[in-house]
Specification:
The chain has 17 helices and 14 strands. With 480 residues, it is of the alpha/beta class. It has 2 domains: 238 residues, Carbamate kinase (3-Layer(aba) Sandwich); 148 residues, VC0802-like (2-Layer Sandwich). A hairpin with a 5-residue loop joins β13 and β14. α4 runs antiparallel to α5, α6 packs antiparallel against α7 and α12 packs antiparallel against α13. Keywords: ATP-binding, Kinase, Nucleotide-binding, Transferase. It catalyses: L-aspartate + ATP = 4-phospho-L-aspartate + ADP. Pfam families: AA_kinase, ACT_9.
């Protein structure tokens, strides 16, 4: 292992430069040493939504508008809106002067080149021998890279202004003469960096010949972060977020009852990612876990707190629930067909093909003799497309949809008698109807499907029964 850490800063934190500088850069994890750290930065909050599409609502950004019609009067105003928003950020960070002009020039150059690429591609694909669909994945990656290039360039130069020997590390491949793998790009970019006296600020997007977004989509920055940590043999990986990884959402269960999690393992992180509450993308976590690199999740705005340490080998001292988490706005899509009995595999494969076509995230699913239900974290627009495709594929089936919430009790070790019974009893006492329930033999989580209006009551009742104690609000472990 090396002597350094690799640290990722999320978009919300990036939007507060003063806190990043004072709470992260000037308060290093290694005492009295500002260096021996690598920073991987996300785009400023909301910028990737504007460049691609809104992550939660699906509202079209520049890419989505270009992909839909490609007429300049559709996507060009959205690109100008991005330019205006990014320049506003520059003007809030840099005082009038040479450095602001350099920041604006760098940004305008990237955006102008992107605009020219889109215009040229539109003209090219008007010719019958060229298909736009073959190039959309590349367009998506190009546009996404602008957000991270913007924030990384700004941060590196602001830190230089403030007395730090920071260096901008551009992994976007913007003017790269050749394609290379992700690992090759990272190794090439860092070969001249001296971590003992330089502080690299790297783009969260990294271009590779296979394309990061085709596999990781919006989780690409976490994969870049993970591979840098693995390839440079960091002793610890750190993610800086705007909140603690806590036993539940403090806004629901109360500030005094929610407990920051001190230790957990990558299994728990995977369960959180499945619910859309990512500590880290599961495939990025896999590299860290296999390389024996621990992950620490810290709150940018409470720099003196040690945060949550995630390792591969941690198991709680006794079986317990560590976190109550969940997600609202889940769509339960149920397909019933009498012909399914005895032939479930054929139906299952065909349904999954439809869901994969629309990149629908599956949180959980139920199967019985003649019914398959998938619980999907998708927006309404995608749901309508999924339902239309399913009705076309299964014209004789009864297909229904229902908006629900999923609440999960998660722990590194929950193998004890009676825990599931305690959970169900706690929910029932609040007059909440459990629509479905899941627990695998691995016993690291229990999932409860409830009506969306019962989400908060379910979170609070499970947290009170399985986590809270009244002496100092510390998490309890339920021994059998």
């Amino acid at each position: 292992m090396g002597q350094h850490t690799v640290e990722k800063i999320g978009g919300t934190s990036m939007s507060d430069y003063r806190s990043v500088r004072d709470n992260i850069i000037f308060k290093p994890t290694q005492e009295n040493n500002m260096y021996q750290r690598v920073f991987v930065v996300s785009a400023y909050s909301g910028m990737t939504d504007k460049l691609l599409e809104h992550k939660k609502t699906g509202d079209a950004g520049v890419f989505a508008l270009f992909a839909q019609e490609r007429k300049q009067n559709n996507w060009f105003p959205a690109l100008q809106d991005v330019r205006s928003a990014m320049l506003d950020i520059n003007h809030s960070l840099f005082e009038e002067g040479e450095l602001r002009h350099k920041a604006d020039a760098f940004l305008n150059s990237r955006l102008q080149e992107a605009q020219e690429c889109l215009e040229d591609l539109h003209r090219l694909c008007q010719h019958g021998h060229f298909s736009i669909s073959e190039h959309l994945a590349t367009v998506r990656e190009m546009l996404a890279s602008i957000g991270e290039a913007h924030s990384a360039w700004n941060t590196a130069h602001l830190l230089q202004r403030d007395g730090v020997n920071a260096v901008y590390v551009d992994l976007t491949g913007w003017n790269s003469p050749s394609h290379m793998s992700l690992d090759e790009r990272i190794i090439d970019a860092f070969k001249e960096v001296d971590l003992s006296k330089e502080l690299p600020i790297a783009t969260g997007y990294a271009h590779s010949e296979t394309g990061l977004m085709s596999t990781f989509d919006r989780g690409y920055s976490e994969m870049t972060f993970s591979r840098i940590a693995v390839l440079t043999e960091a002793y610890e990986a750190v993610i800086h977020k705007e909140f603690h990884l806590s036993s539940a959402d403090p806004r629901l269960v109360g500030e005094s009852n929610a407990v920051p999690i001190g230790r957990t393992n990558y299994d728990v992180a995977d369960q959180l990612a499945n619910l859309g509450m990512e500590a880290i993308h599961p495939k990025a976590a896999k590299g860290l876990r296999q390389s024996g690199i621990s992950l620490r999740v810290k709150n940018t705005f409470e720099p003196d707190h040690t945060g949550t340490l995630i390792t591969g080998d941690y198991v709680s001292d006794a079986p317990c629930v560590e976190i109550i988490a969940g997600c609202r706005g889940v769509f339960a899509v149920e397909l019933f067909d009498q012909d399914m009995a005895g032939d479930i595999d054929k139906f299952d494969v065909a349904i999954l093909k439809v869901l994969n076509q629309f990149h629908a995230h599956i949180i959980a699913k139920d199967i019985n003799a003649n019914t398959i239900t998938h619980y999907l974290a998708i927006n309404l627009k995608t749901l309508k497309r999924v339902m239309r495709a399913l009705h076309e594929r299964f014209s004789d089936a009864e297909i229904t949809q229902r908006k629900v919430a999923i609440v999960s009790a998660i722990g590194s070790d929950m193998k004890t008698t009676g825990m599931l019974a305690k959970a169900v009893k706690a929910i029932a006492e609040q007059n909440v109807n459990v629509l479905a329930m899941h627990q695998s033999m691995r016993q690291v989580d229990m999932q409860f499907v409830v009506d969306e209006e019962d989400y908060e009551k379910t979170i609070c009742s499970l947290h009170k029964e399985l986590v809270e104690v009244h002496n100092h609000g510390r998490a309890i472990c339920l021994a059998s």
